[in-house]
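mind reviewing this stuff:

——
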Amino acid sequence: MSDLTPEDNRDQISFVSVDSAPKRFAGPVSQMRAPAMLATFCVIAIFLLWLINTPEVSQHFPNRDLVLSPYEGRHAVAVRIFILSFFISFAMFSSGSNLGRFLFALDMVFSYVLVCTFLDLANITIGARFDMAYSLHFSAIISGLLGFAIYSFKLLERGRMPVRIPLEHRPVSNKKAIIRLVATTIIAIIVSSYIGGLDLYIVKKLRELTLLGGIGPGVFLFLPTLFGQLYALAILDVALAKKANFRPPVSIIVPAHNESYIIKDTINAMDKAAAHYGGEVHILIMNNNSTDDTEQIACEALAACTSAQGRVINVPKPGKSNALNAGLEATETEFLVRVDADTLVGEDNLSRAMPYFSDPAVGVVGGVPIPPGGALFDRARLLEVIVKHGFYSVAMGAVNGVVGIPGMFVVYRTKHPIYLGGFVEGMNGEDTDISLRIGELGYHSVVDPKLRYVSEVPASYPHMREQRMRWFRSIYHISSRCRDLIYSRNATLRGKIILPYMLINSGRRAMLVPLILFGTMEYAFGFNPDSPIIWQSIVAVTTGAPAIVAVVSAFLNGLPRGVFALPEYLIFRVLRAYFTLESMLSILVSSNGEVLELAYENNIIPDKPLRVA
């Protein structure tokens, strides 16, 4: 792919657009708001930790946390104090009116106290009736997961979000996917339990070196073992997929806003791919309100193409989805390729992607973006895409559980986006939204790890911040718009497992930096002498399983050089978590909460979100 890499002119990127913060759903966040929120979090946390360690209060809470039940064992940190401190400080600095922020905090705190009280009472009841109880570190794990879930879903309820749409679901046979998922889960449980139970020194040390709830190696080995099996099955599926000589005419739509620095290279790369493909290729450059020389350069580059033909279409209304929909309307071929203007497709991309569509069950095909290299974040980004797109997304294909394929390079049957009303406008995540909904129509999404293309990576901190805030907000926009998947009676893997997991994981990521600060404070001040936290556990919260998965993913994808970027990747994960926090702070919080499941229960499709005070 190195021959596709253009001269690095990323400093010329104009990275702010109408998509950076959709005005109906997001507000501006100054770079000082997150630090102020974190400082407030530290003050609240230190006060609560001091309070619970005073003689008068500690006699009621001997575990040095807001725990009512006499749990056995020890825990690494006071998880409940951490969660409540985060809830209060986050709500104080969220976007919205004073009343909205107050009600948001009240809702999160009350809900969390309620479920934790229920958890403690359940433990007391079990102990009294059966003379047994679950341990304190198990309670800490559950308390942490509940905190992530309450935060994510309350933000979804109280944030201003896209309106729910009726989501069409066409049932297909999931027997194969279910058998695979059950079998791999059982094997993962057996393997991780066996390893976790071994009386080995390294196992004992690994069990100690974690932060949230004393999670041991058996727990964090479960997911890598599960996804490793699914990955192997997905690779087998790709190897056995139809490889027919399928070369139908295709249209490539490219939304372009101020892309003069790269648009020529983008078009040249597509022309090379067209030559390798051998079929008819139409390039549609959707000039989206550009103020630079994008149109002129694109016209000259298209005129110089030898294998593809194309034209420039001006789209004056700003917004990527507006450009995509104009391109969709102009498409006259059966198949549609969406390519970002800063993406250089590989020479074999069309030749490799299109044969999958000889199978009528395939609806979406994508691959793995590779950074061009040479800039500040490129090495860390390489490991990130290998893990996310080259490992996890590929693995989910084994159980037909792919939620979204990034719009940098993705192929559709043109009829599907048209049938679904085009690409959604005015929110973040239009690429994931369309892929997800095509999947719910019963079509399979394929992620081919050998289908690789060069995709631009922000070279500056402000550009990376803008990109990630936009990306991380999208999971909430998609979950709100497609909430039928979560609340309907259709037991789909995407709706009942993957989307909720993505929401909860977003909450976990937003809390990562505060969690590191909290652990550091407990370590520095020694608040709990009975369960002293060690410095290795603070470091382990950013390493452990992520490092293992990153190394394995690099070798599985034939890119072992990615291992050398592991330190940068682990640091980048913390920066990414910080951007997640900033992104969540940008969500506009309303003084009214939305009843997410009410519309489904009453079988109502509202024109506006249903709200309750």
In short: The first strand starts at residue 95 and ends at 96. The mean pLDDT is 86. The longest helix spans residues 98-130.
